[in-house]
Amino acid sequence: MDQKSLFRRVGGLIAISLAVLGVLLLRLVQFQLVQGEDYSAQAESVTNYRFTIPAARGEIVDRYGRSLASNAAGYDVVINKLMLTGDLNQLLQDVVGILQAGGESWNDTIPVSAPVNGHYEFTDGDDTAAQRRLATLKERIGLQQYATADQVMDRLVERYELEEYAPEWQRILAGIRYQMQLEDFSENNNFTLAKDVSAQTVATIKERSLSLGGAEILETTHRVYEDGTLLPHYLGSVGSITSEQWWVEDENGNVTTPLRDAGYNMNDLIGQSGVERYAEDRLRGKEGTQQVSRDRNGAIVDTQILTAPEPGQTVSLTIDKTFQKSVNEALANLITTMQQTKEPMKGREVTAGSVVVLDVKTGGILAISNYPSYDLNLYQTNYSAYSSDPNTPLLNRATTGLYTPGSTFKPAVALAGLLEGAITPTETIQCNRVYDFFDYHPRCEMIHHSVGSRIDLTHALTYSCNTYFYDLGWRTGLTDFSAMANRLGLGVKTGFELTESTGNMTQETDENYTASLQIQAAIGQGNTQVTPIQLATYAGTIANKGTRYQTHIISGYRDSNTGELLEEVEPVVMDQIEDTVGAFDAVEQGMLGAKADSAALRDYPLNIAIKTGSPQRWEANEEGTHYVNSAAIAYGPVEDPQIAIGIVLEWGGGGSNALPLVQAIFDSYYNVQSEGMTPTSEGVLLP
Length: 687
Fold this sequence. Notes:
single chain, alpha+beta, seven-stranded mixed β-sheet, 25 strands
């Protein structure tokens, strides 16, 4: 190729390059200078909105991974401001009409009644939470605290432009609109109008979707309990965050929102009681985030998941589901049988009871029952009936009920006397059936010996001799035997993770204290009060010869997806009582004697240590005879203790009436243990 041709070609390439660059430059000038403002406006008109994606709540399972609380698919009706195409009040009226036709409820907590003759009333009670709720309402709508219900409604009608609606609809719409305000309804925060609606309601709203712009059906999950009667007081419940939980006043009077700071939205569900509340941080999971992009014309141009939700952890309990059910049935059967077969003053009047069964070697609760009880799945719908029932099925008797222990307290006094050297196992005390050391002369009703005979520790426990323990209690001293009872697990917190009462021992500082009260305390009367869970803990400590474990119901936490054990709750020793004199062995012999002396258990093949009590109630019949409860502690088999039991029956007619339940519990425990195979888990991988 000659040099001239080469220059011609290079010149051509340069010309083409300059032409391309010129075109690009012209387009750039057009974009930046001529049409720059238009493109900038278009770019700026795209608005991004972020919404949270709820995380599935973790399950609650028993010790073998069998489900106790899980999730079921459901549908919520939500109002999405981004999709709203018409008047909000009209939309709400249309949707509520559909909800009413389907028998559904909706999200409205305003404490104002429906109109009666054109007037309104406040509906909340006089408790602190109710008064605060009402005060918040008046404050948020700009009224003085003395404003009437009619004045509140007038302000709400004006604020939400409801003048054209009938009074009934004014109340409904005002309630919803105020709730939307409480829950910060906005383009970034949808409002849940109704939860877990029926399939018919879902179908109706979807059919009318074109005329209900802004109303959407959201597929979600709702809490279900496989057997709502199994463990209702302890599984607990979930519910919407209340205004009292959302707005919290600190010690300086400043209002804070700790749940918002923790990442909650006001319409979120949260554990309200029981394990659901205790393990909320574990069960909740981590919400995801969805971003919706909308142009200046309101059209959605993009939707994407920024972060996926993570399910909550699985909470494993120490409870054995099968055993729990059998203990529930045994308690209910005993009480109903006593009501039908016992004589008056001998147990016919029994109304309620509770029982706790512990694993002696760990302090884990295997079963915990209350009677009467309720169905957790019906708690919301039947709350009024449950709360007004005179037998108080909602009362958590096993951990918050306080009862005089009666003669079940005597092993604690015996251990204090033996370990403090106030008596030896073989030393005897004379029983004249009347203890006349004081001007007060309490009687001993023991019928197993003649008047004036002497009795040792083993027989005093076997036959529950009051005189022996009056004298031993006086020798040992109230302070010492009360302190021993505390160390054994009575009158102190057991370590139970959920709500429990502390109880109390009789004290010299009590307002009604006298020397006679001290000797009454030595037989478990006086001002001493304990809970059934403390009785079971106490029995377990005696079974362990002085080692008291923390009583607990949580056994661990697992990854919901893989079943991997994330954390295991190890047994915790709360106290260790040193015994160099064989005190626990001596007490055990007396408790074994009580089993041999009982009609209900003497022929039972296992060696079970028991002690019953017949604590006196303050109520008396027309003749002045006081009614009594039934109380019992037990553990066994004594060669290698497995379980410990605490029982209280209200109006039970005497301690021996509780012993058929002890037998039923041991029967059930060994029946469950002998089933051969470890129960199959339900959705949780076990190691």
